[in-house]
């Protein structure tokens, strides 16, 4: 078992339990909830008719039996596609009910929010805006409106937020901060940059989201970010030695394709 620092490290299922089930499907998120994940990560994109759907790539080609850009397709087009079978080509043994279209259809963010609301326990959501700049604010507008409908655009009566918004785009986070100032924002970082030397983040960003490679290559980074008052959420942490490193450094959240294994390594499985 990894010797974690005393504080609780949140385990976030990246695209759901995406090692065991096809990413961004209901099957993957249900599996993550069963596995005991503290939070779920998902990427969101806008369809041509303005629906937020959980898809990582710009195109649906890799993760479905269809072709084309999400932004050029309507939700009804996406609903005809199978987002599960591709996974079976890599790993046929662990996919639960992958032939069940209800579990492997395109997942709207709205359906994911319903799943979380119906789960019966506290599960946080880390929602990443993908390529938001091309939409000139529409992604953030739709996102905040949807969160508002679910009562998630403001903290609960206990003052807690169960949803946070992540992005590689500082502009996207700035828009979120303006529209929903109490929703936590996570600035995703893949590469080192000069302003990180003193742990600073762009305006509108509250939490730091460095990639694991950056954390490995910059041993003092987590401390600097903590000293500057930011939580540190690291992605995508799948290897036991990286989980060990994150625990040693005292990160606040580990984003992983393997929530069950990480929970077990942290002594919570
Ligand atoms: O959680 C952040 C991480 O998901 C960013 O990378 O490409 O997997 O969306 P990507
Ligand atoms: Ca992501």
Task: Describe the protein in words.
- This protein is α/β, with parallel strands linked by helices and 269 residues long.
- It has a single domain (10-58, 109-265), classed as Phosphatidylinositol (PI) phosphodiesterase (TIM Barrel, Alpha-Beta Barrel).
- The protein is built from eleven helices and nine strands.
- The chain has helices at residues 26-35, 75-78, 85-90, 101-104, 109-117, 138-149, 170-179, 212-217, 221-227, 240-249, 259-265; strands at residues 10-14, 39-46, 52-53, 124-129, 163-167, 185-189, 207-210, 233-234, 253-256.
- Strands 1, 2, 3, 4, 5, 6, 7, 8 and 9 form a nine-stranded mixed sheet that branches.
- α6 (138-149) links the parallel β4 and β5 (163-167).
- The site of SN-glycerol-3-phosphate has 10 residues, from β2.
- It comes from Streptomyces clavuligerus.
- Pfam families: GDPD.
Note the gap between the termini.
10 Å
Cofactors, ions and other ligands in the entry: SN-glycerol-3-phosphate, calcium ion
Average pLDDT: 92
Q: Specify Rg, calculated over alpha carbons.
A: 18 Å
Q: Structural class of the secondary structure composition?
A: alpha/beta
The portion of residues assigned to helices is: 25-40%
What sort of overall outline do the alpha carbons produce when their principal axes are compared?
Answer: globular
CATH superfamily: Phosphatidylinositol (PI) phosphodiesterase
Q: What count of helical segments does DSSP give?
A: 11
Q: Please give the number of β-strands.
A: 9
Note the beta-strand portion: 15-25%
Biggest sheet descriptor: 9 strands, mixed
Text of the CATH class:
Alpha Beta
* CATH architectural grouping: Alpha-Beta Barrel
Poorly predicted sequence stretches spanning 5 or more consecutive residues? none
Order of helices and strands: EHEEHHHHEHEHEEHHEHEH
**CATH topology tier name:** TIM Barrel
């Amino acid at each position: 078992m990894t010797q974690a620092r005393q504080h609780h490290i949140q385990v976030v299922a990246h695209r759901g339990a995406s090692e065991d089930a096809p990413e961004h499907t209901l099957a993957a998120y249900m599996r993550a909830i069963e596995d005991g994940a503290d939070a779920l990560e998902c990427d969101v994109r806008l369809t041509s008719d303005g629906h937020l759907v959980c898809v990582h790539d710009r195109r649906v080609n890799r993760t479905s039996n269809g072709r084309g850009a999400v932004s050029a397709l309507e939700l009804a087009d996406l609903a005809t596609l199978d987002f599960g079978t591709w996974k079976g080509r890599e790993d046929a043994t662990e996919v639960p009910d992958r032939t069940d279209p209800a579990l492997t259809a395109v997942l709207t963010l709205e359906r994911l929010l319903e799943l979380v609301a119906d789960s019966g326990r506290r599960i946080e959501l880390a929602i990443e805006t993908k390529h938001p700049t091309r939409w000139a604010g529409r992604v953030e507008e739709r996102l905040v409106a949807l969160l508002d409908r679910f009562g998630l655009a403001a903290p609960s009566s206990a003052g807690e937020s169960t949803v946070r918004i992540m992005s590689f785009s500082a502009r996207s986070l700035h828009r979120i901060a303006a529209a929903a100032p109490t929703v936590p924002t996570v600035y995703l970082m893949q590469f080192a940059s000069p302003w990180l030397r003193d742990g600073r983040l762009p305006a509108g960003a509250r939490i730091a989201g460095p990639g694991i490679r950056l954390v490995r290559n910059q041993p003092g980074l987590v401390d600097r970010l903590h000293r500057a008052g930011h939580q540190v959420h690291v992605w995508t942490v799948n290897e036991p030695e990286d989980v060990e490193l994150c625990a040693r450094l005292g990160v606040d959240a580990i984003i992983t394709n393997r929530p069950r294994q990480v929970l077990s390594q942290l002594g919570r499985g």
